[in-house]
Design a protein that fits this description.
Layout (H helix, E strand, L loop, with lengths): L20 E4 L5 H8 L4 E2 L2 E3 L2 E3 L1 E3 L4 E4 L8 H8 L4 E4 L3 H11 L10 H12 L3 E8 L2 E11 L2 E9 L4 H16 L3 E5 L3 H5 L2 E4 L1 H12 L18
Parallel strand pairs: 10-11
Antiparallel strand pairs: 1-5, 2-5, 3-4, 6-11, 6-12, 7-8, 8-9, 9-10
Length: 233
Amino acid sequence: MIPLPPSRFFPPAEEADADGLLGVGGRLDPDWLLDAYSQGIFPWPVIDGSEALLAWWSPDPRAIIELDDLHVSRRLRRTCRSGRFRVTCDRDFAGVIRGCATGSSRIGQTWITPEMIDAYTRMFELGHAHSVEVWQEGDLAGGVYGLSIGGLFAGESKFHRARDASKVALVYLVYHLRKRGYGLFDIQQLTDHTARMGGVEVDRRQYLGRLGEALQLPVTFGRRLDVEGADFR
């Protein structure tokens, strides 16, 4: 097991409470975000009335998608091959994160606050965050975005405006990460949707061990989607 680098800002992830909450406060600047994800920690604001409190989490168990175990149904494979959608990466990060903010809510309020949008847009400008866009007839129909450090890709959120668009984005992203040599695709929390596509839960200790290994991988996201040889094509 490769140990994680010491944190500049956070206590050990193992000190999170039973709900996964590690702390409240801090900043959403690049130094804090890179440090957090390198420790198995991520920000998820808590909405309290009209106020969004910046909170940091490391849930146990943690959800991941094994890059070699993605489940793609026959219908979804046909959709990927149909030409119905055009798929790109890093063409419209702002459109994807704003689409996710519109479609992602907790108790009716989005956790992707303006501050989160600004923070991850800055991470995109610095080359740490990436998006996969799905287009239909020239319009943005869906997408997914996340943050990349070494061989870790931390998926943050996805959205769709057309049926299957977010699923197609996820399929292309997984194939791309596999081709680029990534070692860990973190999806934070398991949902029925991601479970059907192969998402699984691992305990925090196992996750942190996998994270330490992934951070050492000399891989980059690249400038275009690499899905050559994918079996849906």
